[in-house]
Amino acid sequence: MSKKLNGKVALVTGGSRGIGAATARALAAEGADVAIGYAASHGKAREVVAGLEAIGARAAAFQADQADPGQVAGLVAEVVETFGTLDILVNNAGVFVTGRVDAPDSDTPALDRQFDINVGGVVAAIRAAGPVMGDGGRIITVGSALAEHAIFQGIADYAAAKSAVIGYTKGAARDLGPRGITVNVLQVGSVATDMNSPDGETADVQRSVNALGRYGRPEEVAAGIVFLAGPEASFVTGSVLTIDGGYLA
């Protein structure tokens, strides 16, 4: 039986763990060949690649610092050189740094780097992918429901970064629309990953503000990304798909 992403090449940044790894596996299960970008987790990246190859996908891992636009552009170029094309870009790499706006001891360099990765890395990847992506391509950025409802203290910088990604996505959708390339954000709520453990100190609070009262699974987010990457979503662009367990309900 034909799979809906047969013949497609996908790049998933931050693909060595969590949502990124689940997305890489889900895309490969639908027939795509998958490249993953990673910052430091070489061993985990190799494990993901081995798993993708085990189910018959071509796969490779490339190291890149998402805060460095030159490295991001180089990552996209390496993927095209290795696989011959790029059809799907998933901007998943991101960091989460907290700090109250009135706190004199906030780690300002870390907050600035967060913006460089969460916004600058997305912008650099879209700029690099746009010229090399074929007509009908797909660009999906993993955002956060905190962009719309900053319920916790200390997340102004993170929320601003995720809000900025939505604005950039809408503009990019206009620019790339004539070529049939769709650009969307999939924003998530509390998902069980290394960055947000369901056993962490804020876990009970996070569960309590979700209508479903639980954390999401990376695979549930990956399913939404596969939808946006597939032919069924060909008329969806400049949009925000929310998978948050009812956090914004």
TrEMBL record:
PROSITE patterns: ADH_SHORT. InterPro entries: NAD(P)-bd_dom_sf, Sc_DH/Rdtase_CS, SDR_fam. It holds the Pfam family adh_short_C2. CDD domains: SDR_c. Belongs to the short-chain dehydrogenases/reductases (SDR) family. This is SDR family oxidoreductase. The lineage of its organism: Bacteria, Bacillati, Actinomycetota, Actinomycetes, Kitasatosporales.
